[in-house]
Amino acid sequence: MKQKYITYSATQTKSLGKKIIQKLSEENKEAVVIALKGELGSGKTTFVQGIAKGLGIKDKILSPTFVLMKKYKIPNSQKRFYHIDCYRIKRAQDLSALSLKKLFSDSQNIIVVEWAERIEKILPKDAIILNFKNREQNQREIFVN
């Protein structure tokens, strides 16, 4: 699924998140782990908002920078959506209280990790990695590996 996208607005970035999660949800019967990397302000949280919308989640999605993780029930499903923000994390071990390995192994979970480069060592090998890069004003370059 290696691809490069350029979005020109927050609306387009959200739409891309929605499109990608719908495709992954159809294809994948195992836990889905999406690792987002990129500089501050590059559209990661906006993208997560699109993912949540694509999953049918109506809650307002904000980055869980200070609480580290938020859990949402996916409507009409047994699955759960986890939004993890590692911005304040210095080492992967700092997240040991969250039992990430257990979360990553549960096929009922869809997990998005912002600032994933900070916990790269503990991400599953099959995690989908997206790199976000700022371009000109309101433009984002998003690489899907």
The helix/strand series, from N terminus to C terminus, equals EHEHEEHEEE
Order of strands in the sheet with most strands: 1-7-6-2-5-4-3
What is the CA–CA distance across the termini?
6 Å
Give helix % range: 10-25%
The largest β sheet comes out as: 7 strands, mixed
| Alpha-beta content class | alpha/beta
Give the name of the CATH superfamily. Answer: P-loop containing nucleotide triphosphate hydrolases
CATH topology: Rossmann fold
Total separate domains: 1
Kindly report the average pLDDT value. Answer: 88
Number of strands: 7
Overall radius of gyration: 14 Å
CATH architecture: 3-Layer(aba) Sandwich
Indicate the CATH class: Alpha Beta
The amount of beta strand, in percent, is 25-35%
Sum up the overall morphology in one term.
globular
Would you mind describing this structure in some detail?
The protein is α/β, with parallel strands linked by helices. It has a single domain, classed as P-loop containing nucleotide triphosphate hydrolases (Rossmann fold), CATH 3.40.50.300. It has helices at 10-27, 44-54, 100-105; strands spanning 3-7, 32-38, 69-73, 80-85, 109-114, 128-134, 140-144. The protein has a seven-stranded mixed β-sheet with strand order 1-7-6-2-5-4-3. Helix 1 (10-27) crosses helix 2.
How is this fold's topology laid out?
Blueprint: E1 3-7, H1 10-27, E2 32-38, H2 44-54, E3 69-73, E4 80-85, H3 100-105, E5 109-114, E6 128-134, E7 140-144
Parallel strand pairs: 2-5, 2-6, 4-5
Antiparallel strand pairs: 1-7, 3-4, 6-7
Helix pairs in contact: 1-2
